[in-house]
Amino acid sequence: MRNYELIYVLRPNLEEEAKTAVLDKVKGIIESSGEVVKVDTWGTRKLAYEIEKLTEGYYVLINFKSTTEVPKEIDRNLKIMDNAIRHMIVKLDEK
């Protein structure tokens, strides 16, 4: 199992149920063959640059351990979600 870090940005005008649904879906994918280490919700913050005419986004950071297939599945799902405007998955170094 490898350590990964996922950060994703959602549209800021989403209702709380939609934000929770995205988080639950991502956690479900991770828990299928891994474990969620930490979920850190940053909330609504200003974007560094405008994306799809939006200047703010709702940020969520997730640290998790999993096999190499899980990040590919998360990436595939977040790419097709209309509510997610950006995401990034990084493999953390073993220390």
TrEMBL record:
Q: What is the lineage of its organism?
A: Bacteria, Bacillati, Bacillota, Clostridia, Peptostreptococcales
Keywords of this protein's UniProt record, alphabetized?
Ribonucleoprotein, Ribosomal protein, RNA-binding, rRNA-binding
Purpose: Binds together with bS18 to 16S ribosomal RNA.
Protein family membership: Belongs to the bacterial ribosomal protein bS6 family.
What InterPro entries does the database record attribute to this sequence? Ribosomal_bS6, Ribosomal_bS6_sf, Ribosomal_S6_plastid/chlpt, Transl_elong_EF1B/ribsomal_bS6
Q: Name one GO molecular function term.
A: structural constituent of ribosome
PANTHER family in the cross-refs:
MITOCHONDRIAL 28S RIBOSOMAL PROTEIN S6, SMALL RIBOSOMAL SUBUNIT PROTEIN BS6M
Recorded GO CC terms = cytoplasm; ribonucleoprotein complex; ribosome
- Which protein are we looking at? Small ribosomal subunit protein bS6
Q: What processes in GO biological process is this protein linked to?
A: translation
- Short name of one Pfam family: Ribosomal_S6
Top-level taxon in the UniProt lineage:
Bacteria
